[in-house]
Specification:
Blueprint: H1 4-33, H2 37-63, H3 83-110, H4 114-144, H5 148-159
Helix pairs in contact: 1-2, 1-3, 2-5, 3-4
The protein binds magnesium ion.
Length: 170
């Protein structure tokens, strides 16, 4: 049986992943409106990843005999600025998510919940990738600066990210 503290923390983490998915959808809509369909497509992929993260935790919770407690997903930010500003917000979001997963891992360590520690290792590795992809986008956007043609090239490059935006999370 899963410890109630871990159960609650996993439910909170599921909410955090769903919140992130919601935010990336808002960012996608922002890029659609700005006619940057490549950036929008990238954000659809990112949204899908977050839903997959939520589902991984969901299945883990159920497998451990825990109770699912879905919580309210807060309204995401609606108005955004430049692509660089959007990706800076995304990076901060991922950094907060990393901190949250680390906290969950710490809790699992404190109560010697080895199964949860093992499950969370995937998430710890994944967060390295998540932060890196935001940092890479920020670096490219900083290089592009105000150059519109560079922005169009980047838009095309971001749109080449693999995956099907319409695919279900699981
Ligand atoms: Mg995530």
């Amino acid at each position: 049986m899963i410890d109630p503290k871990i159960e609650q923390a996993i439910n909170d983490q599921i909410n955090q992943e769903m919140t992130a998915a919601y935010s990336y959808l808002a960012m996608a809509a922002h890029f659609e409106k700005a006619n940057l369909s490549g950036f929008a497509s990238w954000m659809y992929q990112q949204r899908l990843e977050e839903l997959t993260h939520a589902m991984k935790l969901y299945h883990y919770l159920i497998d451990r005999g825990g109770d699912l407690a879905l919580k309210t997903i807060e309204n995401p930010q609606k108005e955004f600025g430049t692509p660089l500003e959007v990706f800076n917000i995304a990076l901060k979001m991922e950094q907060a998510n990393t901190a949250s997963i680390n906290q969950l891992y710490k809790l699992a360590t404190e109560i010697s919940d080895y199964a949860t520690q093992s499950h969370l290792k995937w998430f710890i590795d994944e967060q390295v990738e998540e932060e890196k992809s935001m940092e890479d986008a920020i670096a490219m956007l900083e290089l592009a600066g105000d150059d519109r043609s560079a922005m169009l090239v980047l838009n095309q490059q971001m749109g080449a990210r693999q995956g099907d935006p319409g695919a279900p999370a699981e």
